[in-house]
Amino acid sequence: MGFLEALSGLCRAWPAPLTRGHLQKGRQLETVEMKVRIDCEGCESKIRKTLEGMDGVTGIDVVPRENRVTVTGYVDAAKVMRRVERKTGKRVEPWPYVPYDVVAHPYAPGAYDKRAPAGYVRDVMANPDAAPLARATSTETRYTGAFSDDNPNAACAIM
Fold first, then answer.
1. Which helix (H) or strand (E) holds 20?
2. Which entry of 21, 43, 81, 103 is 20 to 30 Å from 97 by CA?
3. H helix or E strand, kind and range, residue 146
4. How do beta strands 120-122 and 92-94 pair?
5. Which residue has the higher pLDDT, 137 or 25?
6. pLDDT tens string 80-103
7. DSSP per-residue codes, 33-81
8. In this structure, which CATH number among 3.40.50.300, 3.40.630.30, 3.30.70.100, 3.30.70.20 belongs to the domain 30-94?
9. Residues 123, 100: Cα–Cα separation, whole Å
10. To which H or E segment does residue 30 belong?
11. Which UniProt keywords apply (predicted)?
12. pLDDT grade, residue 16 (50/70/90)?
C-alpha cells in the first residue's frame, strides 16, 4: 500500500464539511403563526421583506385582514418572531386563536373574543387557567351525556 492510497483512505474517513443542506436535514420543517398588526400594504411588504431575507424560510403567507402571518420552513419560532419585532417595530405574539370546532364551549367568557377573526376563538384548551368556564366539569359532562340523541333511553327510566 502506497502513500497516496493511505492518504486517500484518511480523506474518506474524515467527515465532510457541514453545508446549509446538511444543517437543514437535521431540523424539522416548522410552521410559525403570528399575530402582527398590519395597517397598510407598506406594513405587509415590510414584513415580507424581513422574512424573505431569513435563512431557512420556504414560504410566507400574510393575511392582512386577520393580522396573521404564517411562516413555513426550517426555522426557530422564537427567532422568527424576534426578527419581525426588531425589524418592523411592531408587537408580535403567537397566533392565539383556534377554530370554533376545537373548543368545547366557544362562547364562554374566556374563549370568546370580539377581536378574533370570523370562525375563530381564543385557544383556552392550551391554558385552562385563562378561562375556567370554557371547560366542562365531570358533572356537567355526565348530565349532558345522559340525554344523548344517539341513545334516547340511556338515563331516563320514566320514558
1. helix 20-26
2. 43
3. helix 138-146
4. unpaired
5. 137
6. 999 999 999 999 988 887 787 777
7. EEEE---SHHHHHHHHHHHHTSTTEEEEEEETTTTEEEEEES--HHHHH
8. 3.30.70.100
9. 10
10. strand 30-36
11. Metal-binding
12. very low
The pTM of this model reads 0.59
Residue whose grid cell is 424573505:
52
Place of cell 397566533: 95
Contact predicate 7/65, CB 8 Å: no
Q: Where are the domains of the chain?
A: 30-94, 106-158
Beta-bridged to residue 34, according to DSSP, are 69, 94
CB 68 within 8 A of CB 97: no
DSSP class of residue 99 equals: E
| Distance between first and last Cα of the chain | 95
